Amino acid sequence: MFLRRLPEAVCLLSVCVCAALAYEDVHEITYSNNYENEITQEEETQTTQSSGPCQSSDLTKWDKVFSMLENSQMRENMLLQYTSDIVKVEMGSLRDEMLRFVAQYGGSCGTAVETAGRQMGMQIEARLQETLEQLKLDDLTSVAGKSIGNPHHLEAMLQQLLTAAHTQASKLSKMESNCLSSSGAGTGTHSKTGFRLKGDEGTGHSEQEVTSGEAVLDRVLAALQVVRDELKELKSRQRSLPAGCDMALLFPMRSRRIYTAVLPVASLSLSSFTVCMWVKPNIVSNKTVLLSYGNRKNPYEIQLLLAQTSALFTVGGEAHLVEAGGVVKPGQWIHLCGAWSSEQGLATLWADGNEVASSPGVAEGHVLPAGGSLQLGQEKNDCYISSATGFEVSFDPEMAFAGMMTSVNIWDRVLMKNEISQMALQQGQGCQQRGTTVAWGVTEMVPHGGAQFVY
């Protein structure tokens, strides 16, 4: 039976072997197709046997890419080289120009001197500007009625500026001399106000003049001198407080709220008196009140007034009037006095130490009532306090005084002519005199609404 099955087994084995061989061939073909870009042994042999790449007639895409990269890098290198050459040429040219400039100006000190002069000029101009601002501030304050407390202050400041300017000019001249002594022989000639440096004679710029700081300082000195002259003129127009006074009452503007209440200790029940004061009005209306005393029954017992260029003095009422015209000038100090005697009924008005007007029969036999109110810069006429504003509504801004007032005194007698003349001296010491009823600097005076004491 075995022998009968043997041919079948051999046949089956042969079939299996053939199938295995056939599978191996298919596998090899499939593997080869998955890697088509792989260099085969045959191609490798052909490449090795080739003499060089130039023998290839067709370029692959990779060859084209590498060629483009090589060309781009070459262009970049060419541009960099071109840029480097341009920078070298420009820097070399700039270097040559700088060397020529240094060779021409380096040893002259001209730039150093000019810079130093400019800095000195700026410093002095800054100090000059501060002085001018202070001068303008004092001028505006004086216009408002405030006098300069120390008349020599601004002049001293300007003198310091002039001294500083001369010192700076001396230092600059010394610096200039040192520079010229070290480099003058090699760079050219010099003069008082600058240097003359030799340049390129073939270019038309044979000589250049470098201006020193002395010209700037000369202009500053000239400006300082002009300011000093203006200061002297200002001092002549606007004097300090008169008669040796060291303080004054300032009424900055005309307002019904601005006045000063005077609170004397002694009663003003007088049968004779003299009232004196220094005043400097900024503006004068038809009726400007300097001093007013009265009560509810008669608010016009005493009044010292201004009207345009006139001074007025009343006792016992407006019907008794003494007036002197042409004695008042806005912006200038004037000394005014009013004197009255009940026994003689004579009222006299004085201006700057001179009797300018008098009138007999003024309130003869009258006695000033006690208990009235005395104020400066306004008149009190049946006043009451407003619940809406809190101010005394009876005050009239048209009658308010604007300016300065000092040395306000009242005596309980009629002063002699020489006493009044002595107090009226502008450069005297009349401010040291004190009244018996109201004494300046002793009697309490209360400013209201913006009035204030200035020193």
Structure in words:
There is one protein chain. The chain is α+β, with helices and mostly antiparallel strands and 455 residues long. The strands form 3 sheets. Strands 13-12-11-6-15-4-17 form a 7-stranded antiparallel β-sheet. A 7-stranded antiparallel β-sheet has the order 10-9-8-7-14-5-16, with no helix packed on it. The protein has 2 domains: 110-240; 244-454, Jelly Rolls (Sandwich), CATH 2.60.120. 41% of the residues lie in helices and 21% in strands. Helix 4 packs antiparallel against helix 5 (153-187) and helix 5 runs antiparallel to helix 6.
Secondary structure elements and their pairing?
Blueprint: H1 2-33, H2 41-49, H3 61-105, H4 110-144, H5 153-187, E1 188-190, E2 194-198, E3 207-211, H6 214-237, E4 248-251, E5 259-263, E6 272-281, E7 288-294, E8 302-307, E9 310-315, E10 321-324, E11 334-341, E12 346-351, E13 354-359, E14 373-376, E15 403-411, H7 417-423, E16 444-448, E17 452-454
Antiparallel strand pairs: 1-2, 2-3, 4-15, 4-17, 5-14, 5-16, 6-11, 6-15, 7-8, 7-14, 8-9, 9-10, 11-12, 12-13
Helix pairs in contact: 4-5, 4-6, 5-6
Summarize the structure.
This protein is of the alpha+beta class.
Can you tag this structure with a few keywords?
Jelly Rolls, 7 helices, alpha+beta, 2 domains
What is the H/E order? Answer: HHHHHEEEHEEEEEEEEEEEEHEE
Beta-strand percentage range? 15-25%
| Mean of pLDDT | 74
Determine the N-to-C terminus distance: 157 Å
The strands making up the biggest β-sheet line up spatially as: 13-12-11-6-15-4-17
Number of strands: 17
CATH class annotation of the largest domain? Mainly Beta
Question: What's the story with the biggest beta sheet?
Answer: 7 strands, antiparallel
Q: Helical element count? A: 7
Estimate the helix proportion, in percent.
40-55%
What is the CATH architecture term of the largest domain? Sandwich
